Amino acid sequence: MMKNSIFNISPDRSKYPEKDAEGNLMVDLDSQKYVKLWQGPQHPGVTGNMSLELTISGDEIIQAKTHVGYLHRGFEKLMERRKYIQCFPTCIRMCVAEPDYNEYNLAAGIEELSGIEVPEMAQWLRTLVLEMARLQSLLRVVPGQGGTFALGLGVQWGVYLRDLILDLFEELTGGRVYHMYILPGGVRGLLPDGFKKRMEETLKKIDEFVVNIDNLMFSNAVFKQRAKDVGIIQPEWIDQFGIVGPNARSAGFMRDVRKDYPYLVYDQLDFEPMTMNYSDIYNRARLRWHDLIMTVDLIRQIMAKIPETGDIKAPTPNVLHWKIPRNETYIRSESSRGEYGFYMVSDGTDKPRRINLRGPSYVHAISLLEHMLINANIADTAAIMVSLQTCPPEIER
Amino acid sequence: MTSLKDILSPFTAWKNVILEPVTIKDPINDRPGAARYRGFHKNDITKCIGCGTCEDICENEAIDMVPVEGIETKDGDSGLRPKIDYGRCCWCALCVDVCTTNSLSMSNEYKWIDTDPDNFRFIPGVDKKSWDDNEAGWKKPEPNYEFYGLKRAEMGELHPEERDHSFIEFIKGYSKQQAQEEADRCVECGICTATCPAHMGIPDYIRAIRNDDIEEGLRVLYETNPLPEICGRICTHKCESVCSIGHKGEPLSIRWLKRYIADQVESEHYKKILETENLVKNGKKVAIIGAGPSGLSAAYYLSLLGYECTIFEKLPEAGGMMRYGIPEYRLPYDQIDKDINYILSLGVEIRYNVNIGSDITLDQLHLDYDAVFAGTGLHLGRSTRIDGSDHENVYQSIELLRKITLGEEIHVAEKIVVIGGGNVAMDITRSLARLQKIKYGKVQTLATSLETEDKMPADREEVVEAREEGAIIDPGWAPQSIEIVDGKVKGLHVTQCLSLFDATGAFNPQCNLDNKKFFEADMVVESIGQGMDLGYISENIKDNLTMGPRGRIQVDKYFQTSLPWLFLGGDIIQGPDVIHGIANGHQAARGIDNYLNAKG
Lengths: 397, 600
Ligand code: SF4
Ligand code: SF4
Ligand code: SF4
Prior knowledge:
Chain A has about 400 residues and is an alpha+beta fold. Chain A has helices at about 75-80, 85-90, 100-115, 120-145, 155-175, 195-220, 220-225, 235-240, 245-250, 255-260, 280-305, 360-375, 380-385, 390-395, and strands at about 35-40, 50-55, 60-65, 180-185, 185, 325-335, 340-345, 350-360.
C-alpha cells in the first residue's frame, strides 16, 4: 500500500512471499525471510485477552491469525444450567464494555417468548441505559484510536468522562459496570431525583470534550498521517464478511438496528446515523466521533420526552419457576459496535435450551481482521484492530 | 496535505495544565456509594424468617442458610439466616428483590480491606458491620415490582344472597387456570410444611399443580393425609398463617390447592394412582374406636402396612366431628364419603352404632385384637353455667350441629344469641342463620365472644362470611346471665371483657362491670368448647394408665399409652382439629407397627 507522503518510508514488498500455482502463499520459515511474531495476549495494543499470530517479512505482515481461548468462561453453556432470571448476572459478562445490550436482549427474548408487554416507562428507561452504554463505550473508543498511535491524552479525558457516566449509572442502577437494571418485564427503578440535571451537567462536559478531541486528534497532522488510507474496508466485503454497525456505515452501508428494525422507543426519537463512503481508520474514528455527538443528542431527547413516572415492571410469572414454552427467537439491538443479537431457544423448562450470541466482534476480530492485516505494517496492527472496535469477551463467551 | 492548523491545533490541549486534577484521593477524600448502590448486604434478622428464598435465587451459590445462636426454630421461622460468601457474590441483588419479607437489603459500602479472607463470609445482621446502619444502599424497588404474585387467584363463591338460605357448598373450587396461577406464587420454601401438624409436602404438591401432574399431586397428598377432600375444604390451615408470601402479600391458598388436586381425580382411579391395588395382609388385627379423622387416618396407614383394621363407630355414619360437627355448606357429605370410601376400599371394616363399654368392652377388644387405637373426639358440650343456662331453650352448639346432620328437627327461634368465638360457634351461627332465613325469611342471629375481634379464635373468613350472610358478630363481651321472664328466655346480659388471662397466664377473664349490654333473644346457644367422654375406658384399665396434665391421658410420641396395646390420638390428646387428628393417627400407625413388630 503506497502512500503519497513524506513520512512514507516503506519499500514495496509486494513480491514477498511468492505464491504457488494456486495462489497460496509460500511461507518457508527456514528461508530466513519470515519471522513469526505474537502480538498479545498481554499487549497494550490489544483490546482484551486475545492474540494475533503474525507472520512478518521485514515490518510487513503477510499472514495473520487471531487466537482466542484466553477468556473462555462458557457463559452460553452456563446459562443452559440456570433459571432464566439467573442468566442475567451471567449474560452481562459476555460483553464487559457494554453489558446492557446483553440484559436487554435476554429480557426482550424472554418477554417475546412469554408474551409479556413492557410498560412504556420501562421502555424509555431501557432506551436511556442502552444509549448511556453506547456513550460510555464511545468515550473510550474514540480517543482510544489516538492511543494506538501513542496519543494517550485523549484517552485520559475520555476515561474521566466515562467515569462521570458511570456515576450516573451508579445512581440509576446501583452498579457502575454491571448494571443489572433490565430484567424481564421492565427495569429496576425510576430516575432518581435530580438525575436529569446531573445528566445535563455531564453532557455539557462531553460537549467540550467533543471539541477538544477534534482539535487534539482529528486536526492533528500525525494522527492523520497514521490513520488516513490505512486499514481500508472495501465495500464489497460488507456482506461477504457480515460486517455491521459503524464499520459498515463508514463503507457506505446504512446498517443500524435502531433504524432497520426499530425497537423500544427509537421510533419516537429523531436521529440519522451517519454513513461515509471511504472506510479507513481515520474515517471510522471520525464516524464514531459523530456517533458520540448523536448519542449525546439522543440522551437529551430522551431526557426531554421521558414520562415523569409510570410502571417500571409488568407482572411476570414467579421468576423462581418461570417456564417458557418450546420456541425460538432472534433478538437484536444496536450496540456501539453494531448489531448485537441473541438467538434463543426455549424447550418448555425453566432454563434456556440454548442462548447463542451473534456479536459483531466475531466477524470483525477474526475473519475481517485476519484479512485486513495482510500487507499491513506491524506498527499499524493495534490501530487497525482498535478501528474495528473488537471486543474479545464477546467473541469468547 | 498537511495544513498548519493540523500542526497547531493539538497544542490547544496545553490549556489543561491550568485545570484542577479530577482524581479522588481515597481514603483521604471519601466517596460514598450512590443511594441505590449494591454494596455489602444488610439483613434485619428479626424480620427475616429463614425461608431460604434468597439462597434459591442466587446463581452463584453465594448464600448458605445457617443456624444462628439466639434464634429459635418456631412456626413460621426456620431459625436459619443467610450467610454470604463475598468470594462468590456478584452483587446482583436478586436475593434482595426476591426476599419474601423485605428483610434483606444492601448498604452502599463497597470498600472493606481485611487480611483474613474468611472474614469475607459472614451473616449480615448477625455479624456486626460498620455499614449496618447505612440508610443508603439497594432496596427492593417499589411499588408494583415483584418477582412473584402477591395477590391470591380469585376463588369463585356463591353470592351471600344465594347461600344464606341453603346448605349447598358455597366455595366453588379452583379451575385449572386459577389453580396454576395460585400455585405459581409459591417460592417452595417449606416454611408451611414445618408448621403443618401432618407435615404435608405442600411445596411438592403445589409444584405438581404447576406441572399439571395431578396424579403426582394426589400421591404427595396421600403420603401424609388420607382425607384430602375434607382437609381441602375445612382444614384450619395453620400452613397459610405462616406462608412466607403472607409477609408481603396474601399467603398461598394452600387449602384450596389441596382441594383442587383431590377434586380432579375420580374415586375409581385412586387405587391405581396410589398403587394400593394389591396390598398384602400381614395377618395382624387392629381395633380402632371412632371413625373420626384420627381413627380413619390410623386405619389407612395401618392398612398400607398390611394390618386388618376394624373401626367401631357409635353413630350411624363415619366421619365423626367432620360429619356431625361441620355444616354441610362447608363440607358436603358426598366429599366426606369420597375420602372415607377409598379408605374402606382397602379392606377397612366399620361397625356402626356400636358403643364401646356397653355393646362391647375395651377389655374384649384387647383380647380380640393385637392393638387398639382410640380417637373418640370431643363430643360433649360445655356450659357457661351462668344463671339461666339450664333453661330448655339454652342449647349446646355441638348437639344442634349433630342433630342437623342426623336430619332431626331442631328448635329455631326468631332471635338467637350464640356465645362463643371459635370455628364451631361460627358454624352454628351460620347454620342457624340459614335456618332462620328459611323459616322466617330474615336472619336475627348474633354471636358474641369473650375475645375481641382481633383475638377471636375463629378463622377470619368465617367471621366475614357469617356477616355477609346476615349474622351479627359482636365480640369482646363476657356473658353474665340469661334473663328468663315467665319461663321464657328474653336475652343475654353481658359486660365488656377486658382481658382473658391473668399475669400467670391462667384463664381468668377481667370485666368492666360499668360497660354492660343486653342482647335480646328467645334462644341461646353455648359454644365455648367441648369435653371428652372417656366412659368406655373401664376402671381397671384406667388404673393402669398414667395421666398427664389437664386431665388428659399421657401418651408418648407414638401416641402409645402406658398400656402398650392401647394408643390414643385425635382431639382427646391434641387439637382440637382435623389435621392434628390425621397426624396423630398416622404417627400412631407407625407406633402400632413398631410395637407389633417388636412383639413378633
Ligand atoms: S447479590 Fe446476587 S450473587 Fe450476591 S448473594 Fe445476592 S443473589 Fe447471590
Ligand atoms: S429471602 Fe429474606 S426472609 Fe427469606 S431467608 Fe432470605 S433474607 Fe431471610
Ligand atoms: S406455600 Fe408458602 S410457605 Fe409453603 S412453600 Fe409455598 S411459599 Fe413457602
